């Protein structure tokens, strides 16, 4: 992915800070602007008087230095990474912890009031994240076709579909190993799943790159980011694993790093190291999900960050570059990701509301009919069927969508055929269930 070009921020050395030279700006400027934005030099210099821009930047950097927290990871030149949490970011972090740390059943309760419904919601939203994560990397398959492939367990017909299926398997694997410590083997397995049976960029699934011809281009074709040398990858990722597995709970006098912040840092560092020929972004996002689930933020099973990253690729790229171009200040990337997470929570609420409205429409249709005794799965099938006359359902797709056995799925579908709410036909040995064109009329009789 090409990233925008960013000017390197002027350096800052606390020992060289000239208090007298910047005295006039000390009380006027802080680490963020009046809107709480953590601006990079290339953004700030146009918003202040040009003749005083560098002095004002010195004040801003001084105040950021007072908030800086350094982590135990350095770039390949030995410069350590750090981050700050200004008040505006504290507010965002508090909101995320408040929402994500809550009861998932409460958040999803409007749609998911029982076990089957919750399983269906999780499965559906994991599919959404798998699809958008692949689209962010260039997959062109439509959402509807991709979702049907996942539901039907159909074999992918091209590399775009393969990428989506791999992402789906990757997210499920991340949840399965959420209680394990991070290791090189786990990172390699993340990548192997993400890229298996693909050939983009001559990628070798589950293997680190073996040369330095991988780099990220800026808008003008220049090298915007040159990852560390391939020969350093194993050792550098071992350092990342030590950081991931370290206790940062802050208990017993230790260092505290909020789990959300730590997960975002892991996401950044995997992208920064760029240890693979391709699939780095998918592996980095899987690492983020893995760490959130590891820390019992189960709501993240319902949240798609890739959809919003796909909607703002420029902001995603800039957040990486701002960090690298300003003394490894991770705050830019962290702040961008906090905004993405909050927006993803908003989208989740909208998704739940739309699903609630759709489901209630069918329930109201059934309320005064002889079909009101149907269960959630059957009502949800009818919801989909009324929206799309002629839609085909299969036992395997219903089993996958609602996380129920194939026998149970078959029983539910056959009952709908018995009530003449679905039609039945065959394609070879596979039984197909079709939505009739006059389903709404049938539901009211």
TrEMBL record:
The keyword Metal-binding does not apply. It comes from the Bacteria. PROSITE patterns: FIDO. One of its GO terms (molecular function) is ATP binding. The active site is at 274. ATP binds at residues 216-225, 278-285. This is Filamentation induced by cAMP protein Fic. It comes from Oleiphilus messinensis. The lineage of its organism: Bacteria, Pseudomonadati, Pseudomonadota, Gammaproteobacteria, Oceanospirillales.
